[in-house]
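User: structure tokens for this one?
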Amino acid sequence: MSAELLDSFAAYLTVERGLSPNTVRSYILDLKGFFDFLGEQGKGIEALEREEIVGYIGRLRETGHAGASISRFISSVKGFSRFLLTSGSIAEDPTEMLVSPKIWERLPKALSREEMKRLLAVELKTNAFVRDSAMLELLYASGLRASEIISLRISDLDFEAGFFRVTGKGAKERIVPMNRRAMEKIRKYMQELRPQLVKGKSSPYLFLSRRGLPMTRQRFWQALKEFGEQAGLEVTPHSIRHSFATHLLEGGADLRSLQRMLGHSDIATTQIYTKVTGERLKKVYMEHHPRAK
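Assistant:
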């Protein structure tokens, strides 16, 4: 990366963006680090592509950089991309829809496989256990968001094919598989409890409250909390979704398939899970390899 280009970018940040001298210096240092990273791979400015940017973010995480530092780098490279677009040096912005690492700090701890087995084995002595058990099983089987599972309609299910249709964020639809255990529990709920909940009326929604209305997010959270207390675990809908993604990756699932199942519009969001699974593998290695300590 030439000094002249950096100087031009610094001038752009100062004049066009009105950034302070300290911020401009930080942006330039961020970019120098990134292009040093590209240089290690024998690449230059022509390699300003999404894959390389995400790879460098991974390097920053691995070397212990804080989320604030990575957020600043993302701001730096976004600004640089806009600068190159304006000057006609590139035709597309590789940083478009790049996810902030703030989401990394919010990721809950994934339950282990044994913890999930313990949670799914809980039997509550409640009138709604058949429904709540089916929701929990489906949540782990398919990695749904809480808002998605309570919005499911009977017409979304296809038991014969083993799939169902989900309407996610931005009203985007996707097809998600469900396993045999989830289908069996849903069928049981539909045969034994749902007719009592719907009370002779009709409702398109799959999971209903005792009043025959669609389940609320709050009631679902409460049900999960009860399962967690019985299993001695702290669980939320998102921690189950996180466990679904982590266990699939550990089992060898590819990122593109996982992205589609989770309903992520940006694969960079899905790539967050690769770091989590990597840390878990490292922990297992350090605990069990005879020469790791």
